[in-house]
Structure formats: C-alpha cells, structure tokens
Amino acid sequence: MANVVVVGSQWGDEGKGKIVDWLSEQADVIVRFQGGHNAGHTLVIDGVSYKLSLLPSGVVRGKLSVIGNGVVVDPHALVSEIERLKEQGVEITPDILRVADNATLILSVHRELDALRENAASKENRIGTTKRGIGPAYEDKVGRRAVRVMDLANLETLPGKIDRMLVHHNALLRGLGEPEISADDLYKELASVAEKILPYMDRSWQILDEARRAGKRILFEGAQGALLDNDHGTYPFVTSSNTVSGQAAAGCGLGPNSIDYVLGITKAYTTRVGEGPFPTEQQNEVGEFLGTRGHEFGVVTGRKRRCGWFDAVIVRQTVCTSGISGIALTKLDVLDGLDEIKICVGYELDGERIDYLPASQGAQARVVPIYETLPGWKETTKGARSWADLPAQAVKYVRHVEELIGAPVALLSTSPERDDTILVQNPFQD
Ligand code: GDP
Ligand code: IMO
Ligand code: MG
Questions:
Q1: Per UniProt, where does Mg(2+) bind (predicted)?
Q2: Among this protein's residues, is 13 annotated catalytic?
Q3: Phi and psi at residue 339, in whole multiples of 5°?
Q4: Is the same domain home to 172 and 53?
Q5: Which residue, 146, 169, 197, sits at the end of a domain?
Q6: The whole model's pTM is what?
Q7: Domain boundary at 155, 175, 197, which?
Q8: How far is 354 from 189, CA to CA, in rounded Å?
Q9: 3-class secondary structure for 102-114?
C-alpha cells in the first residue's frame, strides 16, 4: 500500500487539482502541506467546475481533508471558500475538514504588506506575487512572531502575540510612511473569525499517524511548482515555501518514510504567471496559440499566463529535486493540430552548452534554449481515455518526453474533465 505525494514539476498550474481529485477516489486522507490561497486548483466534474485555493482537492469527494501545519491559512479566505463550495453543493463540516492547530495564520497586515512591497518595487524587482500575504506570513513564521491557529482558542494570550508581531510590522510601516496598525483592530479581526475556524482545528500529525498505522492511503497535495520552490526555484522569483516533495512530510507532521511514490504533475508545454526567467517562453503566435487553446489564465488573479515550449531541462532537474517516481502528463490535447512541436533539451550559457538550470539569477536570464523539433499530429487527443486512442505521433512525443526527463508517464490527461485520464501505472500500487 503506497502513500502518494503530488507536486508540480514546473511553475505551477500543471493540473495538480484535476489529478489529485482523480487519485483521491483511491485515497482515505488528502493533505495540503505548504502554500496557501495563492494556489488555484481547478476540478471539472461532469461539466461543473470547482475552484479550490486552500481546501485540499479531496473535499469534493467528501474525503477526509487536512490542512497541514506547513500551510499558511487566511481564516477569512478559508471561511469564504467553504461558503462558496457550499453554494455548489459541497458540504464541508469538521467531519471531513481538519486544520492543523500549529498552522500559521495570514492576517490583513500580511496582505497589505505584500501589496505595498509589490506596488513599490521597480519593474525589474517586482515578483508578481498573488498579493495574498503569503510571503509576509511565512516571514513571520520563521521570524517566530506569527499568530497560529491554536492562538484563536486562547484569546487571553492573543494580545501578547499581537504586540510581539506589531513591534516588527509597525516599525516597517513607519519606515514606509504608512499608518500603523492598532493592536485592538487586529485582535477584533481575529476574534471575529475564531469561532468559525476553531471547530476544524485538530492535530495534523496525529490524524496522519493514525491513518498510517491503520494502513490507510494518504495523498499529499502540493501547491505551486518546483521552479517556484524557495530553494530550488528561480529565486528570488519564487514563492515563500518549499514546494518540492521533501516538504510533504514536514508540512503535516510525518516522517519521510511515510512517502512511497512521488508523482510530478507536468504540463505538455510550459507556463508561468508572474515575473522571472522563463527560457522557453514564446512571445509570439506560438505562445498565443498555447494560451488560447489551453485557457491559460490564472485561477487566483485572472492574469494571463506566459506560455512556451516544453522545457525538458527544468523537468529533468525537478525529477531530481523532488525525487519524482513518475509523472502525470497533462494538457497533451492543447498541442493537437500543430505542424511541429519543439522541446528544449539543453541550454547555451555564454557560449557553452549546459544541461541544467544554473542557480544564479543573471545566468538564468541569459540561458538560451537548444531545441529539438518533432513533427506534430493532426488528429485529436482531446478526451482520449485509452492509450490506443492516441495518434502515433503523440505517443512518440510522450515517449520522447519520458526519455529526456528520466521518468515514466504514470498518468496522461487529455481534457479538464475528471475522467479524461489515461492510467498507465497506478501510483498507489507501486
Ligand atoms: P493546478 O494549479 O496545478 O491545479 O492547475 P490549474 O487548475 O491552475 O490549471 C490547470 C488548468 O488546466 C485548469 O483549468 C484545468 O481544468 C485544466 N486542465 C487540467 N488537465 C487538463 C488537460 O489534460 N487538458 C486540458 N485541455 N485542460 C486541462
Ligand atoms: P498553483 O498551486 C502559479 C507565483 C506567483 C508569483 C510567485 C510568488 O495553482 O499551481 P506568492 O503570492 O506565492 O508570493 O507569489 O509565485 N505563484 C503561482 N503561480 N500557480 C500557483 O499555484 C502559484 N502560486 C504562486 O504568480 O510569481
Ligand atoms: Mg493553479
């Protein structure tokens, strides 16, 4: 019996939500272990679309869903997401949703600081964050001044926590020439939401330990993608958490021996939202084609995603940094009808050929992709549900991707619909 971690292998939006929903039929518990409501995961079930940001994608099936300690939780965003899903007929109660008592809270001060910094930054320095307060909340967490979920249950110690946090934030606000925040307002903001959150509070580590001992299947749902990882990504144009699979254990309170299989969700081409290097970006008709065919608009901010060819160099690197056992290749259908398809197989950096993404910001901006060109296919793969339905040339593309990245395709996705998914090798039965 295997526990499976799902992670994004590019810059996010690879289709993690769809695959987690598909896999969750076989899982007993689904757990988020990093990120926050910067994530936007879309599930399409019988033509109905569900958009999740903070809730694990298993909630739609009514599976036990855990928001682990590694997640940063905006309590207001959580409450409104629960409400939104209720309107779509998905009832979320403490029977199926638990939030780690030691998860960090995102407060309005974080959201404001995120926006303030982004708006003040020059074009070159702007990260293009989702302005959800993710970075500032993680900064407070490692700075040991965060307010956490369990603090909502201890309103008598909350003022002290708030004071400690505001010593830092008000100094910053003064420096930026912005009005300071009153401890009273922050207290009221938290007290007002406490009773809506506390019924979900639980010990993530214990729920998962019990599940593990009982031989239940755990599905770990990553957010963002490996190139947005705070260590391994295109720093500083990254998010503020570790998005690689290694975070799955720490982000919910289990050991690494609880993870058996790492599934890297991989788009058949590449997209990125926000600023930062993107070697295979196509700011031309190819990029327009991919963006239009793939409906590449951000779920959270509605921003147009930047689009480009498949970059085997970065995915090959992710296979290493996340220990990927196999991939789910998504959005193959978007490539239908192209005369030829390019794949980046290496980079040229200052006249030399390299086969990895260098760590420095300058070098990442300078690498020039080296492409191989493959013939496209005229038939459609959209909605294909068996390998035999795929055109020969599409199969060749998939096989070549496997060879270049050094990992096998375990699942293939051919449309946004839950069941338009081809199973090659079941990650749970590894
Ligand atoms: P996530 O953040 O990784 O969960 O991905 P998003 O939900 O942000 O973006 C992926 C988008 O592609 C969503 O709109 C999905 O409905 C859609 N999608 C997922 N798999 C496929 C696929 O195989 N083909 C097509 N055409 N769309 C897909
Ligand atoms: P899912 O889970 C794509 C990007 C932002 C920005 C950078 C930092 O849907 O794949 P942040 O608000 O996290 O401080 O922004 O990270 N980003 C994402 N891009 N998909 C996501 O999540 C993302 N979450 C954050 O656009 O460039
Ligand atoms: Mg997304």
A1: 13, 40
A2: yes
A3: -70, -45
A4: no
A5: 197
A6: 0.97
A7: 197
A8: 52
A9: CCEECCHHHHHHH
